[in-house]
Design brief:
Layout (H helix, E strand, L loop, with lengths): L2 H10 L4 E10 L6 E6 L5 E2 L1 E4 L6 H13 L2 E11 L5 E3 L5 E15 L9 E7 L14 H10 L2
Parallel strand pairs: 1-7
Antiparallel strand pairs: 1-4, 2-3, 2-8, 5-7, 6-7
Length: 152
């Protein structure tokens, strides 16, 4: 962990932090969603992470997509804001966050999906029928469910 959140952790330890985040769910031409299996909890999720000071949400989302999945977003479309009790999460290391996450959908990107920064163990495109919501990270589970409702 680096950047703003790492600096805040030095001050507050594991206590709950408000975390402004931006995320991207990539959907391919076949309507499949790209998910990564996280190294810390072995659950699946889309790419995303905390915004840095003065970073635009769109830039954060694009940066996280590249860092975690090796893709460069050509176009982002706003999808939803994920916040409230459903977005609260305690990481396996004990760090606690109350997320305010801006989620985008990306259907146009370039590059090959590649786990780059060690946060993801595996990347895979899933059809809607292949996703077991119990395997999705809890704070994003309802966002993935909402995405699946909108994919034909």
């Amino acid at each position: 962990m680096t950047g703003y959140i790492a600096e805040m952790r030095k001050l507050v330890g594991r206590r709950t932090l408000m975390q402004c985040a931006a995320s991207v769910a990539c959907i391919d031409e076949r309507g499949r969603i790209l998910l990564g299996k996280r190294a810390d909890n072995h659950m699946w999720g889309y790419s995303g992470g905390a915004c840095e000071i003065d970073e635009r949400a769109e830039d954060c989302a694009k940066r996280e997509l590249f860092e975690e999945m090796g893709l460069i977003a050509d176009e982002l479309t706003f999808f939803c804001v994920n916040s409230g009790p459903e977005a609260h999460y305690v990481y396996p290391n004990g760090d606690e966050v109350s997320n305010f996450e801006i989620v985008y959908v990306c259907r146009n990107w370039h590059g090959e999906p590649t786990a780059r920064d060690g946060e993801m163990e595996e990347l895979r495109f899933f059809s809607r029928d292949e996703i077991d919501l119990r395997s999705i990270m809890p704070p994003t589970r309802h966002v993935v469910a909402k995405l699946l409702e909108q994919i034909p």
